[in-house]
């Protein structure tokens, strides 16, 4: 998975966190392709989980602070992602994780950035509650 300009939400801190998570997907892909040990894949998934939890907590805090009406729906999507990640991580303990297994999560994440994240950031920008640091690509 590679960063694309259309993933940008226009807020540097959020975009930087998204890029970090995408980099972890790339590392996981590489570990799977090289048939890395289960421990290597497990550890990289753990890194992804910790980065995602921090990132999701930041987003949800911003949503709460700014009265974003779709907070519950958005938080439920974060919970879904983390649940799937937990399942995937447990899979590494019993069998080899394949590229198709991780593909679901990376596809979900890409779609989430382009829809839900852009929607909530647009809300807080439109309401004058955060400054746009750069223009996102439409």
Can you describe this structure?
With 138 residues, the chain is mainly α. The chain has one domain (9-124): Four Helix Bundle (Hemerythrin (Met), subunit A) (Up-down Bundle), CATH 1.20.120.50. Helices cover 74% and strands 0% of the residues. It is built from four helices and no strands. The protein has helices spanning 12-33, 38-65, 71-94, 99-126. α1 (12-33) packs antiparallel against α2, α2 (38-65) packs antiparallel against α3 (71-94) and α3 runs antiparallel to α4 (99-126). The radius of gyration is 16 Å and the shape is elongated. The two termini are 20 Å apart. The mean pLDDT is 84. Keywords: Iron, Metal-binding, Oxygen transport, Transport. Residues 10-122 form the Hemerythrin-like domain.
